[in-house]
Amino acid sequence: QDSILDRFLGRRWNEFDNKIVPWICPHCNERSSFVRRGSRPRKLKTSEGIIEFKLYQVTCKSCKKTFSPFPQMLGLKPRTRISTEFEEKIVKLALENSYDKTSKYIEEFTESTISHTASRNIVLKVSDNISINHEMSNFNSILIDGTKVKSGSKERGTEVHLALAPIKKVDKNGRKYNEKRLLAFSIGNPLTKFKKELSKYSCDNVIVDGDSSYSNLIKDLFSHATHRRCIWHIPRQLSYLLYMNNVPVKDRENFLYALIGIFKIEDFYRAINEYFNFIQTFERLEFYDIVNFLKNAMTGIFHSKEDWNNVKKHSSNSLIEREMREINRRTDIGCRWSNAGVYKIIKLLEINRH
Questions:
Q1: Which of 104, 252, 153, 134 is nearest to 197 (CA)?
Q2: How far apart, in whole angstroms, are the C-alpha atoms of residue 119 and residue 98?
Q3: Dist. CA 43–CA 113, nearest whole Å
Q4: pLDDT digits (tens, 9 = 90+) for 142-183
Q5: Which residues, 6+ apart, have CB-to-CB distance to 113 below 8 Å?
Q6: Among the four 185, 231, 247, 311, which has the fewest Cβ within 10 Å?
Q7: Diameter of the chain measured on Cα atoms
Q8: CA distances from residue 38 to 31, 56, 245 in whole angstroms, order as listed
Q9: Is this model's pTM higher than 0.90 or not?
Q10: Are 188 and 158 in contact (CB under 8 A)?
Q11: Nearest 5°: phi and psi at 107?
Q12: Mean pLDDT of the chain
């Protein structure tokens, strides 16, 4: 700091007049006419401990205001007490743990203390400064799903809607992972914001789990895409319906194995025929809710003979279910969330993952 001031203001008691300097007065935008004005102490928390130093100050001759030009030159945010490097580590910890545990881990593994409130404020601030934008606008497939999280005023929580696009498989540490893009997500109903974010994209295939709230959405946004039902979800949804009809566990398993077996039949027309027979079984049992469920799912399952054996085209399975598990895991920590708070933590969580 001394050498910079000597260079642009001159040495003490022998100062330059009206020399252009590499900073701007934040009060009047002056670029010259400054004089030295002592220093003030500063403490900065980092993951390696607290750094103590002095910030030299100058006074602007035009407006008579005193300030330090060095925070901007040293890469320090105004009045910040925590380094950017430390903030990044706090955010990564907070994405995996509650804010209270984050503070305890910081205290245990570093020489600094950060309260759980400060950890939360850092996470929310970082989330506010991030936007979701992609250079790509057209994707092969878009996966849409939802879950409920413990937030808001309703007893059962609030709905989270999420849209992802698988891009390609990549090798990480000897294993293959699906690279994905977060396209849109929203909290609660209606789906207005979710629809607005998704309207920026187009795709060849849309895969949903059968949630009726998505029907009109995908018809409006992706009228030219192929609308598919995820065959991974269907047996699980059938299991729930069988449970609601008081079907014994063993019989439930037999029905599920039969349905999964139909999906594994390689011959397209034989698979359709077996599926019709499967529906008739429930008609004879007078389980009409299951009959309607299977009939509604049919067009999304048996789209065409050409792609029947291409399971990737009509199965989202772990690609989006893994995101649902991560969201539920993180939002099930601590007390009940506000919708705004859970929106921000999910946004950071998904951006960090993808």
A1: 134
A2: 10
A3: 13
A4: 999 888 888 888 888 888 999 988 888 888 778 877 888 888
A5: 103, 106, 107
A6: 311
A7: 102
A8: 20, 6, 80
A9: no
A10: yes
A11: -65, -35
A12: 87
Which pair of tokens denotes residue 145? 């799903």
Token pair 């960090």: residue:
352
Using alpha carbons, list the distances in angstroms from residue 232 to 19, 54, 129, 208: 71, 61, 36, 10
Radius of gyration over every alpha carbon of the chain, rounded to an integer in angstroms: 29
The strand ranges marked E within the chain are: 10-11, 14-15, 34-46, 49-60, 66-67, 138-149, 158-172, 175-187, 202-208, 226-229
- Among the listed ranges 146-160, 269-283, 303-317, which one has the minimum average pLDDT value? 303-317
Cα–Cα distances in angstroms (integers) from residue 149 to residues 121, 154, 190, in the given order: 21, 10, 16
CA distance 104 to 122: 16
Least confident residue range of 81-95, 170-184, 253-267: 170-184
Q: Which of 310, 275, 321, 296 is nearest to 205 (CA)?
A: 310
* Six-digit token string for 170: 């990549």
Paired tokens of 316: 């989202």
Q: For 203, list phi and psi in degrees, rounded to 5.
A: -160, 170
Could you tell me if 340 and 158 are in contact, meaning their C-beta atoms sit under 8 angstroms apart?
no
E strands present in 221-308: 226-229
Q: Give me the residues paired with residue 227 across strands.
A: 206
Integer Cα distance of 23 and 314 in angstroms: 58
CA 271 to CA 144: how far, in whole Å? 26
Q: What are the φ/ψ torsions at residue 57 (nearest 5 degrees)?
A: -120, 160
Distance separating alpha carbons of residues 110 and 131, to the nearest angstrom: 31
The one-letter amino acid at 192: T
Q: Report the amino acid identity of residue 323.
A: E
